[in-house]
Amino acid sequence: MFENLERLKVVLAKAKTEAAKVIIGQENVIDMALIAIFTNSHALIEGVPGTAKTLLVRTLASLLDCSFNRIQFTPDLMPADITGTNIFNLKKEEFTLLKGPVFTTFLLADEINRAPAKTQSALLQAMQERTVTIDRQTYSLPDNFTVFATQNPVEYEGTYPLPEAQKDRFMLKITIDYPDTEGEIELANRMLGDASPEAVLCSGTIKPVIGSGELALLRQSLSDITVKPELIDYIVGIIRKTRSHESVLLGAGPRATQALVLSSRAFAAISGRDFVAPDDIKAMAAPVLEHRIILRPEFEIEGHSITETITDILTEVSVPR
After folding, report:
1. Which one, of 228, 60, 42, lies nearest residue 145 by Cα?
2. For residue 111, which of 77, 129, 163, 228 sits 20 to 30 Å off, Cα-Cα?
3. Contact at 8 Å (CB) between 128 and 24?
């Protein structure tokens, strides 16, 4: 198994290097997306238009030899548009399943908050159980099924906020900011030739870093990464502190505890180590907790942010030595 762990470290490093050829100046974003994939979880991606949210998922699907589908969420989107439906075949005189885009490995739910709750809920069973029920018949999705849902952080007109139960099913919230000056200059220069990010991805120069079916095996090797008992206590202390902090109206639930354990372990692997350190937990605290915490209105009015609250919590919980 330790051989698989070494293989995992190599694959993660290679995936980061290859992805960086397409996704410019977003190393941390690539790390977070890989963590969601290798922990068999889902991620909510938030960023303004043009920050390569769709391109990121397409690139990782190509690198990990996985199928990819995209759904553009709109107010008139129906649940059957996601899951599929049975249609009557006149030649065979029987109903045939027409599978929807949810039958894939990586699903990009683009602007998920543009669809009403009924349509958003069509993803809940798929995300939690990796199955889909159509006309009382249940169908299995791929074992590596992963949802990446995007949101625009500034445009809220005509949107339907995600319910807390659905946000809790996303292991991480990945925030994509504008590239830095050097990254944007590189992007501008690439557009003058034939090396734009889209062209690089479509040219075939980005090759899969793993073979078909290897993802599940590599994911299992994460269990070889050591997590000391005192670090488990540290994680539980952080989560429980979110429920008693003076600025928090609703703290994180047990899914957050699970998410922080698994994501910290994956972050250690991406960092090239076979053990979890307190800094790994601190690095994953904000992505795991940001979308799960609701602040009290009086603190929001005063301009207090969730990020500041998480920082406060990390300073208040004792770090194990």
Report:
1. 42
2. 129
3. no
Q: What is the pTM of this model?
A: 0.92
CATH of 225-321, one of 1.10.8.80, 1.10.12.10, 3.60.140.10, 1.20.120.1730: 1.10.8.80
Alpha carbon distance 192, 188 (integer Å): 7
Tokens of 99: 């599978």
DSSP per-residue string spanning 35-102: HHHHTT--EEEEE-TTS-HHHHHHHHHHHTT--EEEEE--TT--HHHHHEEEEEETTTTEEEEEE-TT
* Of 80, 22, 83, 94, residue with least CA distance to 54: 22
pLDDT per residue over 5-38, tens digit each? 899 999 999 999 999 999 988 999 999 999 999 9
Cα–Cα distance between 294 and 113 in angstroms, integer? 18
Give the helix ranges, DSSP H, for 228-305: 229-242, 254-270, 278-289, 297-301
